[in-house]
Design brief:
92 residues, mainly alpha
Length: 92
């Protein structure tokens, strides 16, 4: 039993996915805010990736009980709606 950790085996795929998504959001936000006139097309994508991050959080917590997991899904829906609204306002 030496060398084996007790309890749940850590699964790092969610951590890596969160990290990649967060870095993408950060890079797009810096680019969009550094020159908003030229990079305004990035705002819908920022909202979309933020919604994706919330959906990933919901998927990870789907086995848990309580309302917290549904709050994550609600936040994702709001962010996705903001993504669609900002995209329509830019491309219409």
């Amino acid at each position: 039993m030496m060398g084996r950790s007790r309890g749940k085996i850590p699964n790092h795929k969610w951590d890596i996915l969160y990290g990649i998504t967060a870095v993408v959001i950060f890079i797009m936000a810096v680019m969009a805010l550094s020159n908003p006139d030229e990079n305004k097309v990035l705002f819908p994508f920022i909202f979309f990736f933020a919604a994706l991050l919330r959906v990933l959080r919901f998927i990870e917590r789907r086995m848990e009980e309580g309302r917290g997991k549904y709050i994550q899904l609600g936040i994702a829906a709001v962010l996705f709606a903001l993504s669609v609204i900002s995209g329509i306002s830019l491309w219409a």
